[in-house]
Structure formats: structure tokens, C-alpha cells
Amino acid sequence: MRRDQADDERVPPRDEGRRGFLKCAAGMAGAAAAVGLGGEAAAVPASRTAAGLREDRQLPDQIPFHGHHQSGIVTPQQLFAGFVGFDVLAENREGLTELFQRLTKRSRILVAGVKPQDEQVAKETPTPDSLTITLGVGASLFDDRFGLSGHKPRHLKAMPAFPDDRLEPPRCHGDLSLQICAQHPDAIVHVLRDLTRETEGLLRPRWRADAFLNPSRPSGSPRTFIGFKDGIVNPDTGSDREMDRLMWVTPPCGEPEWALGGSYQVLRLIRFHIEKWDKLPVARQERIFGRRKASGAPLDGEQETDAPRYRDDPHGTKIPLNSHIRLANPRTEKTDNSRFLRRSYNYDAGFDRSGKMDLGLVFCGYQQDPERQFATVQQRLQHEPLSEFVTPLGGGYFFILPGVRDADDWFGSRLLEKV
């Protein structure tokens, strides 16, 4: 699978005492933040345990770091993920350049399999753990601090509050977004410890969410905590034509030259109101979604991969006109250009102060233009029946920088070297 269009990584010489990364038993850390649906299905299919991964989701131990695009976007989903929004503390462009170069240097080393400092005394045989580290920039980075105001991507802005949102400012936005994905949960923590230690004094965490994929039961796509299969429909990441139309910033997009090869990232922290949802009869839940809870099939189909036949059901007799899948993806020629890639994860943050379970989704979507794609979908979903049972609480819009081309390149080089 072409998935990342990445060049082979230049791997540092093998040192068995230091090389490799994270081999551990299970147990997942809960998320520090919750919140937001934005497409027909919110998570890409994968299993929560390595042994249970579907054959088409098997990952190489080491994901290439160098390439035209960053890894961790069209890379098949790893089992665990961590998302962090940061504020930059650097005082000038020289400090920002130093920050990006430090992040690049450590990310390159960690992805290649070298252990983080805090793990180097571990006795287990290390592996790279299918690690990816993906860096994005927020609209607030393009203020007067670094002289970047004239170089902001065209569609980058602070994520607005949509009508069904209840956004909490401490859980929103940031100068940078960091996505760390791996096959074991401790990898996320060790990498985050390493990167924050290496960038001390240059970054301040704003919000954080740790998350994971649920297994498929009994087969097919996995389920979220509201019980329905997710990730059934997504653009074809193996098609260059589809990716250039829906995902990557290309010359016809009219973006700054430095941004070519990047992509817009939308993060949404969404809480599920589980207690309220569980009181609904399954038949009602299915009409809200437009799919069968057991099989994942559309209400007019037999299998989860069956395409809904909306033209044969113009009045919504079988699949309600206000069902989630029908609003999110009407499957018309006019709405086809609003599709985007969803790469979301589930979270479990225990109980809140009132004794209710804090479960939900860390929604992650990648696209060429968040206004044309994510925001358009959100407008169609406004006040949908499902909105009564989910609440977006945080997240943000970010622009994922173009890939690091080779061993001499670094995150954001084309942006900062042109200023």
C-alpha cells in the first residue's frame, strides 16, 4: 500500500544497547479530554490488540519518517494515539527555528527505534513500535511574534463553535498540535516525555488527549462506546488522484508555496452521554445512525460495506433523511467534494464528579480545505438527532506541515527559511 509516499528512512547505526523502542504489555491510559463527530463514521477500522488486527491493517515495525508528506496521516491506524495542543514560548523566529529543529531531530531518532532517555535502562528487546510523530501548526502561530502573519495557510483559523458544541477554552486551539501514534500505550507516554524534555522552555502544554482503538466484534469494523461500528466509509488513501483532490495541498489550491504537501487537521474532543443513550431502544438508535447495530449494514442493506441506496428511498422510509450517515455523506455528486479522511480514536477517562462515565471520541479528520469539507459536513449535521447524545468540548484546526524530505531537512524549514 502506497499510503504515505515516503522515502526510505536513513536509519542510525544499530546500537543494541540504545536502539529500538517500546515493547510492553497492554493497559490503556484514559484521555485527558473528550469530544466531536464529524463524518459518517468517526474511526478507521482496526483492532485494539496487535493479535486482533485485520490482515489489511498490519503495520511494519518501522514507519518511514522522511517523505513528501508526514507519516501518521494516511498511515494505517496504530492501536494507540496521543494528541497534544501546545503554546510556543519561544520569543522570536530564531527560537521557533530551534524548536522545530529540536522536534525534528528527536522525532527522527525515536521513529528510527532509538529508545527515549527514560527507557534506556529497560531490559526488554526494543522495537520502533510502528511509531509516527505528526506535527501541525495553529492559526495563533501566525501572529506578530515570529513575523509569519503574511504566510498563514489560506483556510487556517481558530476552530469556531458550531451550534451543537459546548467548547471549553482550556481544551481548544494551540500554536502547535502533536499527534503520536504507536502499537503500545506506553510508547505515547515515553515519546511525549522525551519531546517535552528536549524542548523545555520552548513549549507549554495546553491540552492533551490519549486514546485507543476498540476491537472489532465479531468481525469487520470496530465499535465506539455507543456500540455502532465506525470507519466503514473513507476516501481511498491508495489513490493519488483521490488524495490530491481531497487531502493534500497542491498548486491549484492557491496556498503559500511552503505549504505544498501539507494537509489540514481537525481535532474534536467529543463526550458521549452514555447513560442517556443506553436508555434508547436499539431500533431507535439504529434510525438515528441509519445502520444496524449488530452488523453495521445500512438499514436498507445486508453488510456493513453495502452502499445505502438513497435514490431508491427519497422520503427516508428505510434510512431516515435526518440519520447520521445520510446527513454526513449524502452520496451525491454535489456533496462528494466535502468528504475527508477520518482517523479517530476512543477514550475512557473514568468517572466525572457526578459519577457518570466519561467516555467518548477523539475525532481526527484530515482534508484539503476545512471550510469545504469538515465545516460543510458539520452544517449538514446541525441539530441532528445524534447531537442530543454527544457533546463536542474541545479541539482545534491545525495545518499539518509538509513532510521532512531527508536527513538535512526539518519541520517547517520551507516556511521559516522563506520569511
Keywords:
alpha+beta; single chain; 419 residues; 4-stranded antiparallel sheet; 8 helices; 18% helix; heme binding; heme; Dyp_perox_N; disordered N terminus; 5-stranded antiparallel sheet; EC 1.11.1.-
How would you describe the overall organization of this protein?
- Its EC number is 1.11.1.-.
- Its main location: other.
- Involved in the recovery of exogenous heme iron. Extracts iron from heme while preserving the protoporphyrin ring intact.
- It is found in: Cell envelope.
- The protein is globular, with a radius of gyration of 21 Å.
- The relative contact order is 0.23.
- The strands form 2 sheets. The chain has a 5-stranded antiparallel β-sheet.
- The N terminus is likely disordered.
- It has 419 residues and is of the alpha+beta class.
- The chain has one domain.
- A hairpin with a 5-residue loop joins β7 and β8.
- α1 runs antiparallel to α2.
- It contains 8 helices and 9 strands.
- The longest helix is centred in the first third of the chain and has 20 residues.
